[in-house]
Amino acid sequence: MYRDPVSSFLPQPSHPAAIRPLRVGMIGIGTVGAGTFRVLARNQDLIAARAGRGIEVTVVAARNLARAQGIVGEGVALTADPMQVATDPDVDVVVEVAGGTGPARDWVLAAIAHGKHVVTANKALLAVHGPEIFAAASAHGVAVMYEGAVAVSIPIVKALREGLTANRIEWVAGIVNGTTNFILSKMRDEGLDFGDALAQAQALGYAEADPAFDIEGVDAAHKTALLAANAFGMPVRFADAQVEGITALQRLDVACAEQLGFRVKLLGVARRREEGVELRVQPALVPATHLLAQVNGSMNGIMVKADAAGVTMYYGAGAGSEQTASAVIADLVDVARLDGTHAGQRVPHTGFHAHAVRELPVLPRAAVRSAHYLRVPVQATTDIAAVAELLAAQRLPVRQLVLANGPAEAAPQVLVITESALQSAVDLALHALQTSPVVAGPVIALRVETLDD
C-alpha cells in the first residue's frame, strides 16, 4: 500500500473520542434551552465530527427542577441557583438562555470572571450591557458568542464578522422580528385591524401575553444595534436608536400602501452616512416587488449592502425552539474549536478588535433622510390640488400624488409619495398640512425604504 513519505512524518489528528468533551453549563431550560438540549442529543455525533470533540451539557440551572429533570433525564446535574453554574469549576462554557438584563448580567459577568466562555441568545442583555460584557471577556481572555440573539436561524452575525470581513458595509436593513411581521402579513392578507391580528399572533404563540417589546419595536432595536456594531465597528448603541413600533398602524394605511405598489414592514435600518450612522426601527413602505416585501408570516429577512460583495440577502425563521438552538450550538462548536488559540487571534466580539472600534455619531431623527408616504384626509376630492400646492410651497419634492381608492361615503384621502428629504423638512410640511383648512383629520406619515442605494 502506498504511503505518502511526507505525511507519514506529520502528526496525525486525534480521534474526537480521545479529546475531553466541551463541558457546558446551561442557565435556563425553557423553550430555547430545551431545544438546545434536544438538538445536541439528537445530532451529537455529527456535531462532534464538526467540532473536533464532543459537547456535553453537565449541569443545568432551572426554576422548575421537576420539569428540567423530565427534559435532561439522568446524568445531568440540576440546581436552582444560576450562579452555581456560572462559577462551577468543571464547566468550560456557560450557555445563558434565561433572558432578561438584570440577574443575567450578573451571571454572565461571574462566568467570565471565572474564566468561562459564554454563549447567549439574549439580545436585550447585549444591547444594554454589551460593551461592559465584551470588555470583561477581553480582559479575561474568553469569548462571548451570540449568533442566536439576532434572527435566530440566520447566521447574520457570522456573515458580518467573517464572510463580509473584506468589505466596507454601507447599510444593513431587514425584518428582524417575526411577531410583528406575522401581524403585518395578517393585516395585509386578511384586512385585519392591528388588534385582531395581534390576537391571532397570541393565540398561535407568536406573541407573548405581554407583547410590548415586539410590537413597540424594542426587540428589533436590540438586534439592529448589535448588527450596526458588527457592520460599522462601533460600540453597541441601543440607547441612541430611534424606535417606533406598529401599535398605531392602521388597516387603511396597509391598504393604501398596496394601492401605491408597496407593502408595510417593520424594518431595522443601520446605515452609514458621511455625517454619522442612522440607527432606527420603524414601520416603512417597501416596494411590493422588493425581496424584503416577500418575507411573510413569522419569517425574517436581512439585506446587507457592501462595497465589494454588493447586496446580499439572508432569509430564515425568526423564532422557534430548535431554530434558536441551531444558532446556539453553532456558537458552541466555535467555542470547542478555540483550544490552543490565542485570544488576540480569535474573531472579535463585534467583528473589530477593541483598538479599532470607533465612537461613530448616531444621527438624530431630524437629520435622517428618506422618502415618505403621507396620507392626507381632505374635505373634498377637489382638495387634492390644494395639497399639491401646499407641498410645493414647502419645497417638499413629490414623486406621486393620487386619491385613495375607497368607498364614496368615506372621507377622501390624498396619498403622497415624496422624494428623499430630511426628516426636518418633512416635519415642517406635516405641520403646514395639519393646519390647512382643507385637511379633515390627522395626517399620517411613514418612511419609504427602496433600499436601492
Describe this structure in words.
- The structure is a single chain.
- Helix 5 links the parallel strand 4 and strand 5.
- The chain has helices at 31-42, 44-51, 65-72, 82-86, 103-113, 123-140, 156-163, 178-190, 194-203, 212-215, 218-232, 251-259, 321-336, 384-393, 423-434; strands at residues 22-27, 55-61, 77-79, 93-96, 117-120, 144-145, 169-175, 242-243, 262-273, 276-287, 299-306, 310-317, 369-377, 398-403, 413-418, 421-422, 444-448.
- The protein folds into three domains: 14-152 and 324-356, NAD(P)-binding Rossmann-like Domain (Rossmann fold, 3-Layer(aba) Sandwich), CATH 3.40.50; 156-317, Dihydrodipicolinate Reductase, domain 2 (2-Layer Sandwich); 365-448, Alpha-Beta Plaits (2-Layer Sandwich).
- The chain has 15 helices and 17 strands.
- Helix 1 (31-42) crosses helix 13 (321-336), helix 2 runs parallel beside helix 13 and helix 6 (123-140) packs parallel to helix 11.
In a nutshell, what does this entry contain?
With 453 residues, this protein is α/β, with parallel strands linked by helices. It has helices at residues 31-42, 44-51, 65-72, 82-86, 103-113, 123-140, 156-163, 178-190, 194-203, 212-215, 218-232, 251-259, 321-336, 384-393, 423-434; strands spanning 22-27, 55-61, 77-79, 93-96, 117-120, 144-145, 169-175, 242-243, 262-273, 276-287, 299-306, 310-317, 369-377, 398-403, 413-418, 421-422, 444-448. Strands 7, 8, 9, 10, 11, 12, 13, 14, 15, 16 and 17 form an 11-stranded mixed sheet that branches.
